[in-house]
Amino acid sequence: MTATTLATLVGAVATFAVFSYLVKDNAAYRLVQQAALGAAVGIGIWIAWRDVLRPMWWARIQGAFQGGRAWSDALWLLALVPGSLWYFQLSRKWFWVSTLVSGLFIGVAAGLAFKSQILLILPQIGASLKPINPFAGPGGLTWASALDSFNHLLFLVGMMTTLLYFFFSLRTESRLLKGSMRVGRLMIMLTLGAMFASTVMTRMAYLLERLGFLYAKWLAPR
Amino acid sequence: MDARERGRAAWLFLPFIHPSNPPFIPCKVGKTAVNVLAHLHRLDRRWLYLASAIALAVPFLVRARIPMPPTQPFLVTRRLYDAIESCPPNKVVLIDSSWDMGSQAENEAQLECVVRHLCRKRVRFVIISVQRAQLGPEFAQRAIEKITAEPGCERQYGTDWVNLGYVQANDIKVVIEALCRDLHAFRPNDVKQTPVGQLPLMQNVRSIKDVHLLYSVTYSPAEDWISLVKGQFGTPVAFGCMTIMSPYYHTFIESGQLSGMLIGNWGAAEYEALLGRPGRGTELIAFASFGNCIIVAAVLLGNLGLWAARRGRREGK
Question: Measured between beta carbons, which residues in chain B are less than 8 angstroms from residue A108?
């Protein structure tokens, strides 16, 4: 038995063990679940060293001491100082030391998040303001401009009624508001329906991928 | 068929009824079908799992296919295709291939079809994995090497394409900001640990300004690509995402912040139709049609069952 055949066999057994959960929770499922978790952590640590820490940090320091790189690359050793400050979170007495570095990280993340959200949301607000006048186009009233207007109107009604549903979720006697909120609820239900269909499609793709593996690699390998 | 025969026929549905349900009792004439439907409403979901698995296994075991009529590709797919078609020769396409076995079911086909297009069009590309998929570079490398071995898609590593490997991104905004400004400082070596300065392709690719399009293919592409790469640097961004995540990204298509999107295997199949070469996406979506039939039937039966149960309750009062 070659290593590939053994790996395929293990994969097939693990697949069946995971699917057995659909019948009932069992020891085989839990074993595979724990093994997958352990393997993911192990692989993560190894790849963090192989692809990140070794080439981008350790190789520079090593090169500086061996003469292959500039002496200033040895300063990367100083990265250990802020890095090791994180471990003070394990001590109640010295916890405050870790806040020096965590504060720095939170500050950087908050600054970038602020910029990122502004650049993400402002164009969304601009794109929400759509023309609904079919005569406003350069060619006047055409089938295309009429359809565009209808589409934009539908979008605006959907957006406004959905917002109304959330902003005015209080008891109201106004028929107009009640009707609008009902339309908003309908829009939300349509969206949730689309999301549900997308979920089903993704789950189907997962199942298909596993069945493909079982058939093409295990049952009838070419 | 008289009342007794109807009742007997209804017993055929008994295996699909959960043991915890009340026992099935054929009732008055004309009520049997409603009674069966009312019980189907409370069908144990495990029967649905089994039916889906059997339906999806059918195309593997027998050469049966549901005919798929040719359709117009979805606008978002067409836009991605056009964006790659318009790539100038002095620029590259940057691909964030951050998927591994967790989302291989849909992301693999999405990467393959775009890479096939790039290879045919002779557009150079750079691969990088920055989101939480540590095995992303290995999966991408394997998929691309398979495609570059196909006739008409032969491309050379280092000259025509480069894999920069995996970068741990606890905060992806920091990583995106860094790679946009200086790709060489951000990633000194490629996945084979060759210094990027020694790779011919990377001589002319130093920052996001040398990139024509960023294509992020992963389970759920980070919206920071849109805000930073498109919003700050003006480089077009396109996504390949799992179907489950697609409703969220449609708003960015409407606003013009996304230049295209492949939605699950369906998007990949449409892209392959545009390329004129059926591939993995087309095959998977044809297979999934069998499972979709079961889901449609289950939704119909579930709704009929709900109607029947309500009617039964109403009449019982």
Answer: 171, 174
Rounded Cα distance between B35 and B33, Å, is 5
What value of ipTM does the predicted structure carry?
0.83
Token representation of residue B24: 């099935």
Of the candidates B118, B225, B143, the residue with the CA atom closest to the CA atom of residue B177: B225
Cα–Cα distance, A71 to B128 (Å, whole number): 30
Domain ranges of chain A: 1-69, 132-222
Closest among A78, A46, A81, A45 to A61, alpha carbons compared: A78
Chain A residue nearest residue B48, CA to CA: A22
Q: Do B288 and A201 touch (CB under 8 A)?
A: yes
The verdict on pTM exceeding 0.90 is no
Quote the tokens at residue A92: 């109640």
3-class SS of residue B56: helix
Residue matched to tokens 């995540």: B245
Q: Given this model, what pLDDT does residue B154 score? A: 92
Mean pLDDT (10-residue bins), chain B, 317 residues: 46 42 45 73 82 88 70 83 94 94 92 96 94 88 94 93 87 88 89 91 92 96 93 94 91 91 92 90 87 89 84 74
CATH architecture classification, B75-278: 3-Layer(aba) Sandwich (3.40)
Helix/strand/coil for B215:
strand
